[in-house]
Amino acid sequence: MDFFELAAHRRSLRKFTDQKVTQDVIEKLLKTTLLAPSSKNTHSSRFMVIENREALQAIADMRDSGSAFVADAPLAIIVAGDKDLTDLWVDNASISATFLQLAVEAAGLGSCWVHINGRPHCKTDASQGTAEDYLRSKLDIPENWGLLCAVAIGYSPYDSVKPHPETDDYEKIVFVK
């Protein structure tokens, strides 16, 4: 599958089989993700690889909506940035997370990005803090890491991928010649 087919095939996957992701596959995903470009070549992105059920449950519980499915994933990778290296850690981590999701697809697995940065722990009660605060209370995360997202990863239980709906998105593009 070439890059264009890969991009057209990729979907957010929120249901996974019980099949464990092997260490060889995890290492391949990480090696590819570490190739992501970064501002001024700072390579400020950081990664926490999580297979532990309690830690996966903590990610699932970090928000009151939109993250519960992570509890059933065999693997999640928290994508973060070293705030001491650059003020562009969010941008760099976003590029890294995108590389990770494309590598996951190329390896025959599925993934879903679960946002952490700036998200509340509880949408209706700001006093409960942020998703990042919650994760820091549950996991040993370096102080200088800013958390961008968690990428849930696993094998799809589906036989085929639903095609993207036909749309005419050209109104979103401006050509300057």
Compose a concise summary of this entry.
Helices cover 30% and strands 17% of the residues. It contains five helices and four strands; from the N terminus they run H-H-E-H-E-H-E-H-E.
Mean pLDDT: 95
Text of the CATH class: Alpha Beta
Oligomer: single chain
Q: Estimate the helix proportion, in percent.
A: 25-40%
- The count of strands amounts to 4
How large is the share of residues in beta strands? 15-25%
What name does the CATH topology carry? NADH Oxidase
From the N-terminal CA to the C-terminal CA, the straight-line distance is 33 Å
What is the correct CATH architecture? Answer: 3-Layer(aba) Sandwich
Query: Outline, from the CA principal axes?
Result: globular
What pattern of helices and strands is seen along the backbone? Answer: HHEHEHEHE
Q: State the helix count.
A: 5
CATH superfamily: NADH Oxidase
Q: Any low-confidence stretches, pLDDT <50, length ≥5?
A: none
Q: Enumerate the strands of the largest sheet in spatial order, edge to edge or round the barrel.
A: 1-2-4-3
Question: Which sheet architecture does the biggest sheet show?
Answer: 4 strands, antiparallel
**Number of self-contained structural domains:** 1
Radius of gyration: 17 Å
Structural class: alpha+beta
